[in-house]
Design a protein that fits this description.
The structure is a homodimer of 274-residue chains.
Chain A (H helix, E strand, L loop, with lengths): L5 E5 L5 H10 L5 E5 L11 H16 L5 E4 L2 H14 L4 E3 L1 H9 L5 E6 L1 H6 L1 H9 L4 E6 L3 H6 L6 H16 L4 E5 L7 H8 L4 E4 H15 L13 E4 L3 H12 L6 E3 L13
Parallel strand pairs in A: 1-2, 1-3, 2-9, 3-4, 5-6, 5-7, 7-8, 9-10
């Protein structure tokens, strides 16, 4: 079991920021990555759909005998992690809890959260942070245009600056001291966000927090790989492998050698939208 | 059969501009509208996925015994209409052919096309226009950020102006005389597009052209309704009826009284992504 891969899924390509963070602390672990590019984005979908998609993604990864499942997508983490833990035996780690822990550990009393509509509507970060520190004030704001701007590659574009200024104004006004980047795409807008918020505001990237959490969990559960050489990784998507390879370079700063088309399990009740 | 409804599907909410155009020329016809909001957007997906989704949407509509299927989504029209005509007996009308006819009928020799990545990559408008007028020069450009900007309701926002200026620059430079709005969302950006392109450029909205085509087809096939009172319409979505109702108002300028959740047929080979 120890030398089995870690499974990771995301709504698409943004999870590569989480993959990257994970591999930087656990280079010897192998990763099987699934991007659900046929149904992306998740951030504008309902909790019921996000949960169903997440269940199908997890079933796919379990077909490879993975030892742990990482939910890289914030929208899935916010809505489906609890459900996945109830329905599967494999340990499931989402990005919300580690991100909330990192944010709660920061000094100051005012924390901002930005994310997709689904993540912000869930209130999952607020809940997780308040469980750790009750007295903290939290301001959250959905930023639905950030994902398409990143996917268009406009990381340093005047239009992106204007959009950022509009979304972030209430957070600056609230004088937050820490800002949680509650979506896998947002770390790519770090410099534009810092420029507007000022460098005194600490940015929390859940990906780094999750990577540390996974490393700790593997050690605690005695599931770390015994390999000392670099792990081998596989990439699957439910649509458009070529686009994933191309846009993936924005996220990884390197080419992805091979991306395969995934066949999701068409399971009973879950094959039908209900 | 004559008093059966017209079926119409779209990737989500944008098709309401087509619905609106259709109802304005055929108020007495009943319409069953399906928005595939669980899998939207189609414009960034592959031809294979768009075709599969379109087949499932059509099967759903046929369950209501519709007399004709309107493909309101440009990305579906570009990739799936031919396939749907081969696989179903019901008449299938997409937006590309009527839009191309309207554009080809305009004076001038330079036509611009804007649409999603999928529509522009298909070359469907170019092909359809060139079949009618070989000598016309065509310049096309994908505008992937227009859809999320419209869905955010930023129809008159400085960021939308900046994005439009960037996307439309090559078309202005090419001195096009006619511009096809090759996506159901774009008519809502008409004033920003006109502002940048100048009022001398004629904007072609495929929705109006499709509505005229459907009216003509119903007459030719002797399938017009015998009702003289207003038709009754039903709205279905595959996810998030509340959001469809809310954002739908941007498109219709009125409330949508009721939106139901659709159960798509989970059919044999098509239930599995392959």
């Amino acid at each position: 079991m120890n030398n089995s891969a870690i499974g990771m899924f995301d709504s698409g390509i943004g999870g590569l920021t989480v993959y990257r963070a994970l591999k930087s602390v656990l280079p010897e672990e192998s990763v099987i990555y699934l991007g659900d590019t046929a149904r992306l984005p998740y951030g504008s979908k309902s909790a019921a759909s996000i949960t169903r998609f997440s269940e199908e993604n997890t079933s796919f990864l379990l077909g490879f005998g993975v030892k742990l499942v990482v939910v890289a997508c914030n929208s899935s983490s916010a809505h489906a992690v609890h459900y996945l833990r109830q329905h599967f035996k494999v340990p499931v780690v989402g990005v919300i809890e580690p991100g909330a822990m990192a944010a709660a550990a920061m000094p100051g009393k005012r924390i901002g959260i930005i994310g997709t509509n689904a993540t912000v509507a869930s209130g999952a970060y607020e809940k997780a942070i308040h469980e750790l520190r009750r007295e903290v004030e939290i301001v959250s704001h959905a930023c639905p245009l950030f994902v398409p701007l990143v996917e268009e590659g406009w990381l340093d574009h005047p239009a992106t600056r204007l959009v950022a200024a509009e979304y972030l104004a209430p957070l600056r006004q609230a004088q937050i001291e820490t800002l949680v980047l509650g979506c896998t795409h947002y770390p790519l807008l770090r410099s534009i966000i810092e420029e507007y918020m000022g460098t005194a505001v600490r940015l929390v990237d859940s990906a780094a927090a999750l990577a540390a959490e996974v490393k700790r969990l593997l050690a605690v559960m005695n599931l770390s790989t015994s390999e000392s050489t670099a792990g081998s990784d596989s990439f699957f998507v439910t649509d458009f492998p070529e686009r994933f390879q191309r846009v993936g370079e924005i996220f990884l700063d390197r080419k992805i050698p091979e991306v395969s088309l995934a066949q999701l399990p068409a399971g009973g009740k879950n094959a039908v939208i209900s």
